């Protein structure tokens, strides 16, 4: 079926990988296609549930749901919720679902959504106290995991700054486990613009830097982490450039008490964001 607000029925001929709507949706697996269409794909039952709740809250729109027969049988409430929300639900073949998937094992349920990102001023809103900034983070799995961590820590927003990965990248969306739909996300190609907006919102900019002379625990004991803070994280491979670190208000490292050489990006982000969250709630 296609183009109407009901669930697929046994007599409906499912869309194939050659059906124009599936072909159009497949273009959204590439950044250029997403930017051109101003839409992206959310794959998997969890992500689609979060997308439908996000749309129901008036924060975005789910344009269509593609689902295989097997996935519809596994997730009848999900299909029913989409139909009740007026989302067109289109049956697809397994091959069509695989064409829309960026995973080894397609889950058979994919939603076409409007972008989640908002302007910087909207993301920061009034009184933001904890923000994660991903500066030049190129790995979508790392970026999505940091979004999930920021969501769990109660952060007010996540900013993708500089030459960072697209937050709508399929792997980023999956790694966030739906958190891209929970908290404001903004993109700022000009990192300096993002830093100025954060300072203007009253946040202190702190670099997470493994080479910083001072560590997180010392700053916490001094009470620094209770202040409104924007943690700035760099790429896992190269960290933050020296000039970026020098331009921020402070730089802190996570102390390593054992023999590990370092922490990966997502783990370091979890330690830093939760330290601030705890201090701000104390």
Automatic annotation (TrEMBL):
Family, per the entry? Belongs to the class IV-like SAM-binding methyltransferase superfamily. RNA methyltransferase TrmH family.
The record ties this protein, via InterPro entries, to: Alpha/beta_knot_MTases (IPR029028), MRM3-like_sub_bind (IPR053888), Ribosomal_eL30-like_sf (IPR029064), rRNA_Methyltransferase (IPR051259), SpoU_MeTrfase (IPR001537), SpoU_subst-bd (IPR013123), tRNA_m1G_MTases_N (IPR029026)
The superkingdom of the source organism is: Bacteria
One Pfam family matching this protein: SpoU_methylase
* UniProt-listed CDD domains: SpoU-like_rRNA-MTase (cd18095)
Name assigned to this protein: TrmH family RNA methyltransferase
Q: Name one GO molecular function term.
A: methyltransferase activity
Q: Which organism is it from?
A: Saccharothrix lopnurensis
UniProt keywords, alphabetically: Methyltransferase, Transferase
Per the record, the GO terms for biological process are: methylation
RNA 2-O ribose methyltransferase substrate binding domain: residues covered: 41-119
